[in-house]
## 1
Amino acid sequence: MPRAETLTPALPQGFSADELAAAARWVVARIRPAASTRSIAVTLEALQAVAHRARRGPVCIPDLLPGSGLEVLHIPAAQPGMCQLASLTGEIDQAALRDIGRALRAEFVASGADMLRLEADDGAELIVYAIEVRAIVMAATGVQLVETTQQ
């Protein structure tokens, strides 16, 4: 998957449509059969929009990539500290999320990695990690996980 070391100047706080499409092609190339490239790219775009709205503090989404055993931690720029577990609902394609999770987990297994960290130009971070290393990721990022019950 392409690294996000330098982001497009037109979108200094996010990935361009071309970068999201490249990421979608990366997933589709690894998962057969997979959701459509377009569906995966649209889902990645929707997730990016969610991340842009999460400016109040870190958000951990353990069930974002169903069946993969991976969790996602989003840390907005200059927002270390307390974190809440969150769930996503709505118009995000669940099949695309499963495919993204399967492709990432397969890459983790093939490379021996247990996490992927992307940093945006504004300092925001997105960390995808195996649930087994949650405590290490939380300690390394200085984030304290607070579980809340939703009613």
Note: The chain has four helices and six strands.
## 2
Amino acid sequence: MTSRRDRLKKLVKVQEQLKALHETRHAGFLSAAAAAESEAQDLIGHFDAGSSLAGLFPELYHRRIANALDRQKQSLESARLEAALVATATARTNMVERAYKDVRRRDERERSDRERLDLIAQKREQE
């Protein structure tokens, strides 16, 4: 059977991986939002240019601009939700790390106490 210390050590590793996953997803959503905003700005720039096809297909440009802005809004909302998950994962990771450190200190203290008791017992046997 594995010790509590080993289980907590594994749990810390899993929590750190989960936190990294949420951080990566958050960054991906922010990147997608920036790309959508850039696409909308480019489309607006082409729409305003006199030599573009926007005059022939204004509905198409308006729809694509609206879609890009919708994607940006959705990505920013997803990033906000993911940021909350990052905060939760960080709190859980910190809590598990504290528990792991406490258990590790307790194990080390118990080990040193046993070593001292063994030394005392050896000295009494020698006397």
Note: DSSP finds two helices and no strands in the chain.
## 3
Amino acid sequence: MLLVIQFDIDVDIIDVPQTIVENAGYYQDQFLKWLYNKSVNHSYWSYKDGKKYGLVYRSDAFVEWLNKYPLKENSQKAKIVSQHLSEYEKALPILFY
């Protein structure tokens, strides 16, 4: 099922299992806890003076997290369909970042 990921000026569209869409807010919260946890070494950290300083990410981070954790045992994985769109189907479910 398609899910829109809204960023500041554009959107990405990802394809995820129905259960992810049905509980999108929960999964977004869990993802953000993982993403902002400084004890987690993922590739979305930016560094200043050798220390974790900020984050640089788009929908690829959410897709990676979904596939690695909630969908680990699921045969259907999340995937990116489109990126950096200015127009999209407004009836699609959406998460704001």
Note: The longest strand covers residues 79-85.
